[in-house]
Design goal:
The protein is α/β, with parallel strands linked by helices. It folds into 2 domains: about 180 residues, NAD(P)-binding Rossmann-like Domain (Rossmann fold, 3-Layer(aba) Sandwich), CATH 3.40.50; about 120 residues. It has 13 helices and 13 strands. The strands form 4 sheets. It has a 7-stranded parallel β-sheet with strand order 3-2-1-4-5-6-11, with helices on both faces. Helix 2 packs parallel to helix 3 and helix 3 packs parallel to helix 4. It is globular. The mean pLDDT is about 95.
């Protein structure tokens, strides 16, 4: 297949670029070239800004594609641009959406027909774009599908944390400092490695006739937040000490770092993969959370034979202060 990936060097899309190339597809990526990520020899690297409609139109008009996958469509304006550029010019369009479109769960497991009531701007923007793509599929303008990921990462991602942009988790685990967790760590979540995500996406590309107009959950196995941090500790050869605080207290203490917690992570999230696995039975979790942390460690993690160094003393002090207040 001739495939265009809008993005192609990001947290999930890099794995897909490598997988599709290894499968023998003719792969092109479209991005601004600002991310220093190597791609396989033979992948066509197109330079362009998806914010500029002329760039999308130019790429769409120069070549026809069997499939287009957009990883960097964040809102309805982007969706309108894709629909305008690629309607009648590609065989199958996959929009990378998010499980944030669901908002607080109303029943378990969360399947694709679950009510969609996002509580955060990111989820609302992605839902608006998703609705445009699925309506375009219904109208026959674009053979589009949507894939809803949740907490997907690669070997270079941050370690799991209830805070965004938190580099302190490996340090705290190795130093024996308690890890901040919300609501006793008992709520379930799902982490998925990008290499496993790529299997699902590659499989969907083989079934455009079945997936047009459909949305799919693609998530990892269910694991409590307690289990997430204990898996991270095992990867580092240590044990996790956890310190619990109410989600609301963490959000109040770290308003600039808790958009993931405020958006979805404060809720019990239990998703079903049954729909995508019916179509792509080879999709399953082969890299669990502990192995994912080991891979981070091998790529860029701290050496375990040296005393731990605190990468962000100011953040560490703020976490410690909240834990002391919560313990009173």
């Amino acid at each position: 297949m001739t495939i265009l990936i809008i993005g192609g060097t990001g947290q999930i899309s890099t794995s897909l670029t490598y997988r599709l190339h290894a499968e023998g597809h003719d792969v092109s990526t479209l991005n601004r070239g600002r991310t220093s990520v190597d791609v396989p020899s033979g992948v066509r690297c197109l330079r362009g800004d998806r914010e500029r409609q002329d760039d999308l139109d130019k790429v769409a008009s120069e070549r026809s594609y069997d499939a287009v996958i957009d990883f960097v469509c964040w809102n309805t304006a982007h969706a309108h641009g894709d629909i305008s550029a690629f309607s009648g010019r590609c065989g199958h369009f996959i929009y990378i959406s998010t499980a944030w479109v669901y908002g607080p769960p109303k029943r378990f497991p969360v399947t694709e027909d679950h009510p969609r009531t996002p509580v955060e701007e990111y989820g609302r923007n992605k839902l608006g774009a998703e609705e445009l793509f699925l309506q375009a599929a219904y109208d026959g303008r674009l053979s589009a599908s949507a894939v809803r990921f949740h907490a997907t990462y690669n070997d270079y991602s941050e370690w799991p944390s209830v805070l965004a942009n938190d580099p302190t988790i490996p340090y705290r685990l190795r130093a024996g400092k308690p890890i901040l967790v919300h609501d006793r760590g008992v709520l379930p979540t799902h982490f998925l490695h990008a290499d496993d995500a790529a299997v699902a996406l590659s499989g969907l590309l083989r079934h455009p006739e079945n997936s047009c107009g459909e949305a799919y959950n693609v998530v990892g196995d269910s694991l409590t937040w307690d289990g997430v941090f204990r898996s991270a500790a095992r990867a580092l050869g240590t044990e996790a000490r956890l310190s619990s605080a109410p989600a609301e207290s963490i959000i109040d203490a770290f308003p600039e770092r808790t958009w993931p917690l405020n958006g979805v992570h404060q809720y019990a999230m239990s998703f079903s993969n049954a729909k995508v696995q019916d179509l792509v039975p080879e999709f399953r979790v082969t890299i669990d959370t502990e192995e994912g942390c080991r891979r981070r460690l091998a790529k860029s993690g701290p050496s375990t034979d040296r005393p731990p160094e605190d990468p962000d003393p100011e953040l560490t002090a703020r976490i410690d202060a909240l834990q002391l207040r919560s313990a009173r």
